[in-house]
Structure formats: structure tokens, C-alpha cells
Amino acid sequence: MIVARVTACVILCMSIHVHATDLVAAPSLTNAENYKDRALASCIATAYKNSAAGEDADATKSMYLEWTYYDDKNANPAVDELIEKYLRRDYSTPIEGYSGAKFMLLKCIDMYHSKYLDNQVRKYVSHPDWIGDKPKKTRRK
């Protein structure tokens, strides 16, 4: 009976370990990285509002609040304004097979890589190299 319980416990512990390896990267990233990732998720949520992709991006955007330390009072409206600016861009193309495409995802990706978003990181993220509200951990060799 004891052997069966120990075996069951070992199997249970092994299955928990397998699930624990699927970790979200964001908690171990810097505030600067998470700020930009949150802006990208917000852009996708706005671009694909009222769709499954938009709802998932909106939930993802909200989760970044748990992992990012920044001036949300001033930054959130600034991000929203930047998103609107990029989503209003005209990316129409005469290339065959692409006419009529809105390229909303491309606009969000361009915003993510923009100097404007980099400027926001400098302005609103007081500790860009920190992970959350703590200094970045140094790795041991």
C-alpha cells in the first residue's frame, strides 16, 4: 500500500514538473521589453477588435500590467495615441494579390519597431533594465 502511494506521488510530481516547464517569458524580461510587448498586444487588440484574436490580445495586454513597472497614468494614453496614429496609416499597395488588404498587423509591427515607441520607453519606463520593480538579476558564470 505504501509503495502504491509513493509511486502515485512520484508520478504526480513528475506530471507537475512537465507542466511547470511551459513558463511565460514576460516575468523574466525587462520593463522596457515588456512595455513594448504590451504596446504590441494593445495594437493587435485594437486592430482586431471584436474577434477572437483581438480578445486574446486584449487579455494578453492586461497581463503585462503584472510584469511591467512604468508610469501607466501617462503612458497608457500615449500608447493609445501612437496605436491610433499607426492604424490610420495607408499601406495600400498596387501589387497583385494584395489589393484591398489593410495590413493591420504590419502596422502594429512597424509601431513596435518605431523610434516613437522607443522614445516612450525612455520617457515612461523609469527602470527599463529592471525586471518588474526590482533591479535586473545578474547571471552567474
Describe the structure.
The structure is a single chain. The chain is mainly alpha-helical. It has a domain at 28-124: Four Helix Bundle (Hemerythrin (Met), subunit A) (Up-down Bundle). The chain contains six helices and no strands. The protein has helices at residues 2-20, 31-47, 52-63, 72-87, 104-112, 115-124. α2 packs antiparallel against α5 (104-112) and α4 runs antiparallel to α6 (115-124). The longest helix is centred in the N-terminal third of the chain and has 19 residues, at 2-20. The protein is globular, with a radius of gyration of 21 Å. Residues 6-10 have low confidence and may be disordered.
Summary of the model, kept short:
The chain is mainly alpha-helical and 141 residues long.
Question: Characteristics of this structure?
Answer:
Four Helix Bundle (Hemerythrin (Met), subunit A); mainly alpha; 141 residues
